[in-house]
Amino acid sequence: MSSAVLDKLKAGVRKFQTEIYPGHEEKYILAASTPQRPSALIIACADSRIDVETITSSMPGELFVTRNIGNLVPAYGEMLGGVSAVVEYAVSALGVQHIVVCGHSDCGAMKGLLNPEAVARMPTVENWLKNGHAALSVANALAVKDEKQSDLMRRLTEQNVLLQLQHLRTHPSVAGAMAKDELTISGWVYDIGSGGVRICEEGNKAFVPVVSAGAGAGGATA
Ligand SMILES: [Zn+2]
Predict the structure, then answer these.
(1) Rounded Cα distance, 183 and 196, in Å
(2) What are phi and psi of 68, to 5 degrees?
(3) Which end of the chain has a smaller Cβ tally under 10 Å, C or N?
(4) How many Cβ atoms from other residues are within 10 Å of residue 84's Cβ?
C-alpha cells in the first residue's frame, strides 16, 4: 500500500518537472544562485489543506515558512525548539520584515482543545496543545448562552491566533526588531471552503476580511 502512495508522489514530481518547472525556470535558477531573502515568515498549521504559498500567490524564495499542529508559538523560554529556532533565524539572520501567524477553519488542534479526550491517547500532542490553553480560557469566558459550536470554534481559532502573537512578542529577536520598527506582525484566519482570509493587524483586535480587487467596499470575501 505504501508503495502506491510513493508512486503517486513520484508521479507528482514528474508532473512538476515537465509541466510546472519549465514555466518558471528562470525564477528557480535565480532562486538557486542568490541567497534567500524572504520578506515574511509565515507560521501556519500542519493541516494538509493549508498551502500558504498558494493563498498568498508566492514564489520560491519569498516566504520563510514553518508549520505545526495548531499554528502555535511557544512563549520564549517554554519548549525552546523548532518553532523558536525558526523565529530567531528568520528575524536575526534573514531579516524578515513581517511575521504572520495563520490559523484556519475546521482546525483539528482547536477541536482537540475543545475536546481534550480526543487527544488523551496522544501525550505529545496533548502536551503541545498546552500552548493554546489560554486561548481556550478566553474563548470560553466570552461564550454566550446557547451558543452554536461553530461560533465557539471561530472565536477559539481567532483567540488562538491572538495568543500566539502575544507569545511571539516574548521572543527576544522579535521584541528587539519590533522596537526598532524593523518588524511588524499580523494574525490571519484562512477559511478553507471559501478561500477567504481575515487579518488582524498589529494593535487591532478585530479580524478584517481581505477584499478582492473587484469586490469594492463591503464586498467581503470571508
Ligand atoms: Zn489546524
Answers:
(1) 25
(2) -150, 170
(3) N
(4) 19
Per-residue model confidence as pLDDT tens digits over 67-83: 999 999 999 987 788 99
Residue 102: burial class (beta carbons within 10 Å; 0-12, 13-18, 19+):
buried
One-letter amino acid of 70? G
Provide the residues around ligand 1 (an ion) whose CB is within 5 A: 45, 47, 107, 109
The domain segmentation of the chain, as residue ranges, is 1-34, 35-209
Looking at domain 35-209, what is its CATH homologous superfamily?
A: Carbonic anhydrase (3.40.1050.10)
Per residue in 5-32, pLDDT (tens digit) is: 999 999 999 999 999 999 999 989 988 9
Rounded to the nearest whole angstrom, what is the distance from the C-alpha of residue 151 to the centroid of ligand 1? 17
Q: Measured between alpha carbons, how far is 196 from 191 in angstroms, rounded to an integer?
A: 5
Alpha carbons within 13 angstroms on the beta-carbon side of residue 220 total 8
pLDDT tens for residues 142-201?
999 999 999 999 999 999 999 999 999 999 999 999 999 999 999 999 999 999 999 999
CA 107 to ligand 1 centroid distance, Å? 4
Enter the C-alpha cell of residue 218: 463591503
